[in-house]
Amino acid sequence: MYNLISVVLKKRLDLDFKTSSDFRARIVEFPGLWMSEREIAGLRAELRKVAGRAVPGGDLDYGVFSEREDVLQRTIVTLVYRVSDGTPVAFNALPVISLSLSGKPVEVLHLGLVMIDPAVRSQGLSWVLYGLTCFLLFLRNQLRPLWISNVTQVPAVAGMVAETFSDVFPSPTRGARRSLRQQLIATEIMAGHRHVFGVGKEAGFDADRFVITDAYTGGSDNLKKTFEAAPKHRKAEYNDFCAAELDYDRGDDLLQIGQLDLNAAQRYLLESVPRNALGRLAVASFVILVQRLVLPLMHWADGRRQWGILRPSR
After folding, report:
1. Could you give the CA distance from residue 156 to residue 114 in angstroms, rounded to a whole number?
2. What is the separation of C-alpha 60 from the centre of its chain, rounded to a whole number of angstroms?
3. Residue 281's CB: how many other CB atoms inside 10 A?
4. Which of 21, 178, 220, 233, by CA, is between 20 and 30 Å from 6?
5. What tens digit of pLDDT does each residue of 216-227 get?
6. What is the helix (H) or strand (E) element at residue 115, kind and residue range?
7. What's the whole-model pTM score?
8. Cα–Cα distance measured from residue 267 to residue 273, given in angstroms and rounded to the nearest whole number
């Protein structure tokens, strides 16, 4: 399933494995920092192929589809391929937003742009596209909590985020409230990182409800939906919440802030990952843990090359 040695020796995450008998996923971390120009062009072509099927005739001009040269230097891309013919059928582009929280640097994983070929929707890809990469990054972060953000007007997605991650705001869940840290993160994201999710400068922000008003003006215009067209959650409370909080005619979005912690990771394993995929996920997790533990040890043992503040011995 893996060439274990080559994966461990890579500085950035680059995993390619089967998630089921029908699909395989490739997760590449910050490809703009290490891929060749030819590989980058191929990756962009695969992303656009999926987008062309998911949004026929609609152009997108933000995130991985923008002309900013640094986009793929701070984005983790998860691409899903059909095993039978190798065709890309879905992707998730997960930007990493660097912020300052209480004077300390903090990274927020933005759940980013998810697109699925209509031909494979409802075929069990949600656990791969909405949680797999976050879960593996959580393992690599030594089980320390990770902040996540999400921008959506789709009730099905808003509900999935609220149920998968911890302490998510906004959410219809009883007792959901914004913390000071969430307020600071949301304010800083809206102040300097709107381009990450295609929201223009003219869009407003309701800081009490975490609602972005008139959001579809910064490159994501073709993703705007009516409430009727937006996929619904199986639980009516999420559908009712979005209908009450968002003006779909104007084009509003929720800005959700939450965390991936041990509780969220446990929920993901027990409720989101199919039973027949647990073995494959266990192998992927093992590779991540080996990479996290073995690679630093190999660097430490090599006395011929500098590593961090350590100098080669003479």
Report:
1. 13
2. 18
3. 20
4. 21
5. 886 676 788 999
6. strand 113-116
7. 0.82
8. 9
3-state SS of 234-254?
CCHHHHHHHHHHCCCCCCCEE
DSSP label at residue 121: T
Count of residues for the chain? 314
Amino acid at 172: P
pLDDT at 185 over 70: yes
What's phi and psi for 205, nearest 5 deg? Answer: -145, 120
The answer to whether 100 and 188 have CB atoms below 8 angstroms apart is yes
Place of tokens 């911890």: 166
In contact, 101 and 193? CB cutoff 8 Å: no
Q: In the structure encoding, which two tokens stand for residue 13, read together?
A: 């995450």
Bridge partners, residue 79, by sequence: 26, 91
pLDDT tens digit sequence for 68-85: 767 889 999 999 999 999
Burial call 20-49: b when 16+ CB within 10 Å, e when fewer? bebbbbbbbbbbbeebeeeeeeebbebbee
For residues 163 and 166, give the distance between their C-alpha atoms in angstroms, rounded to a whole number: 8
Gyration radius of the chain's alpha carbons? 20
Distance (Å, whole) CA 93 – CA 75: 6
Residue 183 and residue 159 in contact, taking contact as beta carbons nearer than 8 Å: no
